[in-house]
Amino acid sequence: MAGIGSSTPTLNQALARRRGAPIATLLLVVGIVGATLLAILGYAELQRTEQIIILVRDVAYGQQIVAQDLSLVAVPAHRPSQLRGVTDPRQVVGTYASRNLTANDLVQPTMLMSAPVGQPIYPNGEQLQLNMVPFPFTIATLGPITHRDRLNIGYSDPSGDPDLCRTTHDGAALPSEQEIERRAGISTGYRPYTCRLLSSVRVLWIDAGVAYLEVTPYQAQALRALQAAGLTLWGERYGASSDPLPVLDRLDAGQLSTTERP
After folding, report:
1. pLDDT recorded at residue 1
2. Could you give the CA distance from residue 67 to residue 60 in angstroms, rounded to a whole number?
3. Residues 41, 170: Cα–Cα separation, whole Å
4. CA 138, 140, 146: angle at the middle one, nearest 5?
5. Is 223 helix (H, G, I), strand (E, B) or coil?
6. Distances (CA, A) of 235 to 79, 130, 195, 220
7. What is the mean pLDDT of residues 108-113?
8. What is the DSSP letter of 83?
9. Do 134 and 204 meet the contact criterion of CB atoms below 8 Å apart?
């Protein structure tokens, strides 16, 4: 009997157990509720979005951006830094494209310039270089051509005027007309000739059958002087990576040979 009685809890022990059970249960409930609330808040935060700006049409380099170029799309608020973008249209409208931009591009601060570039910009994004001028040249005889091509420019003189195109690109004098005729064994007066004047000229822009070439002011004036003299300008498409050819390279029928000229 004594052994059984010793294992029976006292009144204080029984009351302490009854008081501890609700506290543990309450703490468990509070923990579950807190975890649930945190999960709900975390899910809501992940679902939160904000609007960023995208382009709806192409904008060429140097062109001013207007409101009609832009649209807003909703994206998750938590996203990679590469997709942060610009969220305020007021920071974009009125700025200038720092490169060629295309539709659906996400607008980033690096795409924007606060002021226009100092040199003229063509619709394809090509920029006229400092101290250069555009020269219009018909592409009727050139075939398909793009602004990534280069042109060699020359002219033809049907009168055979010996005072034109008389030196090579390095300044060395060419044989006289009489010397050329003597070598050819004929004497028929001045012969028509053709002369390459410019090599590897950059194409800026093509519009309505006209290519706008980038040349120096002196080169543009020389080409216009040839046009004023009634001489025919000609051009040939040339690779952008090809070697520049000698300029002022004169050739007439009496100089032709069966071997290729260097």
Report:
1. 45
2. 15
3. 79
4. 75
5. helix
6. 53, 24, 11, 14
7. 88
8. G
9. yes
Tokens for 59?
């904008």
Instruction: Indicate the average pLDDT of the chain.
Output: 78
Q: Are 237 and 153 in contact (CB under 8 A)?
A: no
Q: Say how many Å lie between the first and final Cα of the chain, rounded.
A: 129
Helices (H), the chain: 2-7, 11-47, 177-184, 217-228
* Structural contact between residues 127 and 213, judged by C-beta atoms closer than 8 angstroms: no
Q: DSSP code of 10?
A: P
Amino acid at 141: T
- CATH 3.90.1210.10 describes domain 50-113: yes
Between 9-13, 26-30, 59-63, 118-122, the lowest mean confidence (pLDDT) is in 9-13
Is 192 in contact with 160 (CB distance < 8 Å)?
yes
Q: What does the alpha-carbon distance between residue 147 and residue 154 come to, in Å, rounded to a whole number?
A: 19
Q: How many other C-beta atoms are found inside a 10 Å radius of the C-beta of residue 182?
A: 13
Domain boundaries, the chain: 50-113, 133-255
Q: Side chain identity at 124, as an amino acid letter?
A: N
What's the DSSP call for residue 93?
A: T
Measured CA angle at 175 (ends 174, 176), to 5 deg: 115
